[in-house]
Design goal:
By secondary structure, the protein is of the alpha/beta class.
Length: 157
């Protein structure tokens, strides 16, 4: 059995108690399409554009402003289009998986430099699997997790 640079076993049979989940109830193949409905729509678009670059799909007539992120999309809709137009994005959270532990540090710093509040600085930890992990809270109340699974291959980068 191999051990990561952080000293974690890559054997999921050795997960800490309480982490085992029965995923056999449904044939889930993924979780996709993170959608946010911030009250200050324009400011949120500016923030995410500063961090992730130009919008990949912009269709104001359809109310769609989106960035492709790997195999899914981050979409920012006007807050008035959300389930509760009077609410803010408070208590929303999504995770971005990056390609190497170093990228966790780089994206964390870019988010903070663009105005996000640092929550947890990058660290090697364990949540379902060994990983490099950090999080920030964006200016609109959304928590953004940034992580990279730690494997022997990722520690070589």
């Amino acid at each position: 059995m191999s051990t990561t640079a952080a000293g974690y076993s890559a054997d999921f049979a050795q997960m800490p108690e309480g982490y085992a989940a029965d995923m056999s109830r449904f044939d889930i193949v993924g979780l996709n399409y993170v959608s946010l409905y911030p009250a200050d729509h324009r400011a949120a678009i500016d923030f995410y554009t500063e961090v992730f670059g130009p919008i990949d799909v912009e269709s104001p007539d359809d109310g769609v402003w989106g960035w492709q992120m790997g195999s899914t999309w981050l979409t920012v809709f006007p807050g008035t289009e959300g389930p509760d137009p009077t609410a803010t994005s408070v208590n929303a959270e999504f995770a971005i998986q990056v390609g190497s532990p170093t990228e966790v540090d780089r994206l964390f710093e870019a988010l903070v430099a663009s105005g996000a509040k640092a929550g947890s600085a990058p660290e090697d930890t364990w949540m379902y699997e060994p990983m490099r992990f950090a999080y920030v809270d964006d200016p609109y109340g959304v928590r953004i997790d940034v992580y990279c699974p730690i494997t022997e291959a990722s520690t070589d980068q």
